[in-house]
Structure formats: structure tokens, C-alpha cells
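Re: your question about Phage holin family protein

S., sorry for the slow reply, the queue was backed up all week. Below is exactly what I fed in.
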Amino acid sequence: MSNQDLSIKSLLSGLVDQISQLVRQELRLAQAEVSQKIAQAQAGGLAVFAGMLLAFCALLILLQALVLALSNIMPPTVAAILVSLTTAAVAFALIKQGQRKLKVTNLVPERTIAAVRRDKELVMEKTK
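Result:
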């Protein structure tokens, strides 16, 4: 074999090694980013759960206020309604915060996709 054949083989071998190393790095990046997105989804789910729990408490307090209003029309009823409306507002805010964190667009591994695109362009340039 000539020196040129050996250098072409070594270049191709090096290219294959670099591409496989690049793929491994991209897979590690994707794994790390997916783990981060899963943690974000868990936090969003927990916020939605907490919001729903508070909404249930608000319903109970509101029902208590309705009972008090029907049985005894007095200022304590106004206090119970105020507490239930405040609890409902906090529950609504928690649910909305959780929903924002659970949007599909927030769970896409954007950095990995961008890195893969850059790497693909780089490989295409090098193979030309």
C-alpha cells in the first residue's frame, strides 16, 4: 500500500472516531437535559397538586361559609367567605404556575437540538 492509501485510511479512521465521540457527547448532553426537564415537570406537577389541594380546601371553607350564612346571618360568615376567596386565589395562582412549567415547549431539549444541528453542519463541511 502506498503512503497516500494509509493517510486516507487514517483520516477516515480519525473521522469515524471523532463522529462516534461526538455522538456519545451529544447523547450525554441529551441525557442531562432530559433529566433537567423531568425535574422541571415534577416541580410543575407538584405545584398543580398543591394548587388543587388548596382549591379543595377553598371549596370546603366556602361550603362552611354557606352553611353559616344560611343558619346564622352574622359577620363571622363574611370572614369565612373572605378566607375561602383568598384560598381560592392562591390555589388558582399555583395551578397556573404549574401549568406554565408543564407546557410541552418547556420540555423540549433545545440546547441538545441546537448542538446536534451545529455538529451535523460541521460534519457536512468536513466531508465535502
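The helical segments are 3-71, 75-101, 110-127. The chain has two domains: 1-73, 75-127.

Happy to talk it through on Thursday.
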